[in-house]
Amino acid sequence: MVSVIMITYGHEQFIKQAIEGVLMQQCDFEVELIIANDCSPDNTDSVVNQIIENHPNSNWIRYTRHTSNKGMTPNFVWALKQANGTYIALCEGDDYWTDPLKLKKQVDFLSANQEFGICFHKTEEINLFDKSKNRIFPNINNNTIYSIEDYILNNWTATCSIVFTYKFYKNENWYTTLPFGDLGLVLIILKNSNKKAMVFNDIMSVYRVHIGGVHGNLQQNCLKLIDAYKQHLVFGKIIKEKLLHERIYSKYFLKKKIQTYEKLNQLYKKEDFYIKMLSNKIIIFLLKIRYKLLYS
Length: 296
Fold this sequence. Notes:
The protein has about 300 residues and is α/β, with parallel strands linked by helices. The protein is about 45% helix and about 20% strand. The N and C termini lie far apart (about 50 Å).
């Protein structure tokens, strides 16, 4: 069995397409779609219930609307605990799948290559603010293997492209404290498997950037984007202390830290935060010296 986890909050405009992208899957194994509505204030509940009443594959759906808001990561953890599948696929309520063979392709790979704990694929990003920013990511031309070190440096792939083997997930108490739960999940699975991920060259999903989404909200507000990059520093500290504390990863955490402070400096410049720019430049200078001494 494959369990598809779909968390949703305020996705009235998008949830129908997200659900239908799951229910159109053609596969030779059982599928359950676990929809966890985090007490949405809009008509998401009504849209979901209409699909349950009318869709021929609605028996795949296990739907819960929480009576109070849990928050994104706690809602995801709750939904994951409901799963019965050997494999877990993710699709949030504002994204959708476009290939009816997506699940079969990814599950077949994980079943045949059991040393891998997770796989992804290319995704189309649709930017509802600016169509010129639409893109396909990651920028690969063939099926590509990414390492755990690659994911320390960057989150290369979309959450809606994830399929992983459930046995490699370990419920860590610190997980819900992470600022970026999706990347934390990827690193947990990679650490507990062979530390590698297959990324298929196939484009099989759409990731939306919109005003109600996490990344869309950040793109419209430079100050919120600054806060987000500060949270990257918090994320790196937690992951380094709790999960990837081995010395072999230290080089990559330091490199990521330098990259994050450099990005913060670019944002401070846009906002004319010159004192913060100066202090950041000192930090970057010291971090680069440390990197050179340790790893050059």
